[in-house]
What we know:
By secondary structure, the chain is an alpha/beta fold. The chain contains 20 helices and 17 strands.
Amino acid sequence: MAVTEEASVEELRSALKIHPVLCSILVQRGVTTFSDAKNFFRPQLEQLHSPWLMKDMDKAVARILTALRANEKILVFGDYDVDGTTAVAVMYRFLKTQHRQLDFYLPHRYKEGYGISKAGIDFAKENGFSLVIALDCGIKSADLIDYANCLNVDFIICDHHLPDTIIPKAVAVLNPKQKDCSYPYKELCGCGVGYKLIIALCEKLGLPSSFPYQYLDLVATAIAADIVPITGENRILAFYGLDIVNKAPNPGIKALAFLSGAQQPLHIYNLVFMIAPRINAAGRMDDARKAVKLFVSETYEEALTYAELLHNDNSERKEADASITEEALGLILQNETWISRKSTVVYQPHWHKGVVGIVASRLIEHHYRPTVVLTESGGYAAGSARSVPGFNLYEAIHACREYLLGYGGHFAAAGLTLNKDHIDAFREKFEEVVAASITEDQQIPAILIDAEIKLSDITPAFYNIIRQMEPFGPGNMTPVFVARGVKDHGSRIVKEKHLRFKIQQEGVLFTGIGFQLAHKFSIIESGHPFDIVFKIDENEWNGQKSLQLKVEDLKAAVF
């Protein structure tokens, strides 16, 4: 640890009176002073940046106010994923309090594809909508915005994806990632950008500054699902959004939580693993409009009707995901040369297009390497690619562009389309590119450890501080610890796959669970000390709460 880091840790320890290991973790995360710690542990909505710092905010607000005064028809347009559907719902719900000439539109995933579509623009024109507010999409739609301009359909774009060189000629483009946008925080999700527009509109409409807070549960859901950093403004928005999720949630959130069996209080991981998949399933398996209808429902009973549709979509999605994953794993095993490869490319024409991205992620859990899963779509092969941490997937796919009709994405994920008779050639080229550029470290799953501690350090007070570090997510992950030289005190295999730990270190006993770790039981059986990597969790049994370890990995101790 550098001298400056040591000084910061000591300053925090002195000011906060908490365990030095926790102070060290805070310093690693950029919390170095008492003032930083106060803002981190007690975020305030007043700390949010002024929306007027965002480029074109004045133009966006002026155009919407004109539309409200002239009673123009406004169309709220958005993407079909969680960020897009929540953004549409938030903007629609807000505008509904001020305006009646209003509707929303989501492109169909398979008929129109991602983002602003010609069909959507034509819908706006044919139905008399003179203003479209596009959320979580639009920054790359310069040609389509030109088309809309020719039809006298105005667009306001609220997006967070990286802009191309050419910015669409919309009435206003709100995106903090624009090079000439001075907005201080660059990591808002699409719903977050829309929320900032609502804050500015409230100011001009003379509404209370607290008026937009009612939508923060949906903003928090978008932040959680879109895997944006939970730092800065996102941390503040997620912090207060979770408060609303647990105290006065949108009827749609409440209905999805009920159907998913989520226990109160809900945390970010509940939004990520229980709520978000059900919202996403609408667009993956059918039509995402029902997700927006869920969130704009006025009553819990109405919301529950739509939530049940999403819940059923998600059940179908899980069945498709599981069966396709099993089939894909079988394909890999049938082709012996594929097993030792540095990449995976699999194709079957009957696989459901809506789950190929999920299947790619599942395959990486079994064969840890960059993976492409393809299916048939419109007479072509189309699909999704996923990477392993540290490997630039987009660059690898770009290097295979001679075989592709189209592709797009980023460092960790991408989509691509190609002729079916080019699949084999693409597979070989992709393998060649990956094998030449992937490093040894990138071929081994890595667990990032925050600190080494002893079991005796784990107390209710220690865990309470960790809980106060929530909400967790990118940029502020749940702390991961290592404890060395622990000894077995009666651990066992449960359900053939998992380990139920009972361990001790220097007389301190702890229990824990290690999912999918049964294959490492021989390390424990040897009777020798071993090291464990874990998170700290709370277990509730018969009304009693106790701390336990959620073990991520173990290995024989080296002395």
